[in-house]
Design goal:
The chain is an all-alpha fold. It is 71% helix and 0% strand.
């Protein structure tokens, strides 16, 4: 598939809403903190839209305008490390990111982020092409109609 920028944004939103939200509900319950996991999910979505601009620009230089799933896996892990770096930076400044509790540990962050990321990554490479075959041929876009 050759994803369009809009397709990347819509697919990220769809996967984080449909799969990420129920997983985040579980982590909110498990951690006894209903705010932090949802704030992190929101940051993943918003920062991810910014990352998608960069990824889309990089992909236009490839002959097929796409890259292997392993690259997607590595960039997702990089996104998580950078997000943790931002959380850690705020903490070192004596502040907290809005919505992120001071009790967030790297272990809890990693468990939540990696679970949501791996489930959405696996779904984007397995379930979406099977359940929505036209999704692949529309550059990942959902809003372009399904006639």
């Amino acid at each position: 598939m050759t994803p369009t920028l809009q397709g990347r944004w819509e697919t990220r939103f769809f996967l984080l809403t449909v799969l990420g939200t129920p997983l985040t509900v579980f982590f909110a319950w498990a951690y006894g903190d209903g705010r932090t996991p949802f704030a992190l999910l929101g940051y993943v979505l918003v920062f991810g839209w910014g990352w998608d601009i960069l990824y889309y620009g990089l992909q236009t230089g490839r002959w097929n305008r796409d890259w292997p799933p392993l690259f997607t896996l590595l960039t997702g892990l990089g996104e998580g490390l950078i997000l943790w770096g931002v959380v850690y930076f705020f903490r070192k400044q004596g502040a907290a990111m809005p919505g992120v509790g001071a009790g967030l540990t790297f272990g809890r962050f990693a468990a939540h982020y990696l679970t949501v990321f791996m489930v959405t990554w696996a779904a984007s490479h397995s379930l979406l092409p099977l359940l929505f075959p036209r999704w692949r041929f529309r550059g990942g876009q959902w809003s372009s109609g399904w006639e």
